[in-house]
User: Fold these one by one.
Assistant:
Number 1:
Amino acid sequence: MTTTTKTEEVRKEAAECAQAATSAQDLMSRMVKLLHERMLKYNWVGFYMIEQEPGRSPILVLGEFQGAMTPHKRIQLNQGICGAAASTGKTVVVDDVAQDPRYLACSIETKSEIVVPIFVRGEVVGELDIDSHFQAAFKDEDRALVEFCAGVVGQYLEKSRA
Ligand code: SME
């Protein structure tokens, strides 16, 4: 199977997750399992969602994930690659995490990372973060797949918060 066929298949399965899900949390749980199981280089897959408590700065809080336990359960918006994606609202792809001073280490095996923001009505509400044990694991078609998955979750949240 070519990698394009594979990402197309997984994209379809991600859309099916939204049909089958009983809640946003259930959708995110299905999504991390799907991406972790089906995409061999996606060694850690997780959601961070923005928590906004009155009188405090917004913070990213770890939600559903698959992979090794991470020490980073709460990340400030001005910290890490996760904070960069959330605060700019832009996808961040890092081919070699050792070269990026923003990087917060989760596992010594991680070599590359992608973080894609999730939007609800134009506002960043969280993000989908994926780490790989391989350098430069996230090519254009991976970026498109992960952005699609983040979009599916954003649309689901938008509907459920209507
Ligand atoms: N590497 C991320 C932290 C999260 S862990 O990878 C799970 C960062 O630099 O923000």
Number 2:
Amino acid sequence: MAEETIFSKILRKEIPADIVYEDDRVTAFRDINPKAPTHILIIPNYNIPTVNEVTEKDEAVIGHIFVVAAKIAEQEGIAEKGYRLIVNCNEHGGQEVYHLHIHLLGGQRLGRMVV
Ligand code: 5GP
């Protein structure tokens, strides 16, 4: 079993989060420290710590995250202008929370992809 993170507590509603979308497979909520006008995290409802642990059994949920990302972008009114999806992995990727998540960032023109 993967270790618990703060995102497990958000999933169990033990700590508050501004949840913008949830279903039986994924949950999406606003980042507590937004880096753009829209900054939403989309996570599977079970913990995969990093991309390194993704296996074939996760393919459906990972695909679903993209479907939900497109839905939320439409909901947020940023679909047409565009947005960025980011997944950080481990130390060099800048990952802080070890529960796989996709950042959905938009609402302004974003800077260079890699600093
Ligand atoms: P990472 O660097 O792991 O890709 O991104 C983790 C993200 O989770 C960061 O952008 C951080 O601001 C966000 N985050 C960390 N703790 C919390 C929290 O308790 N609630 C919310 N909504 N976001 C969090």
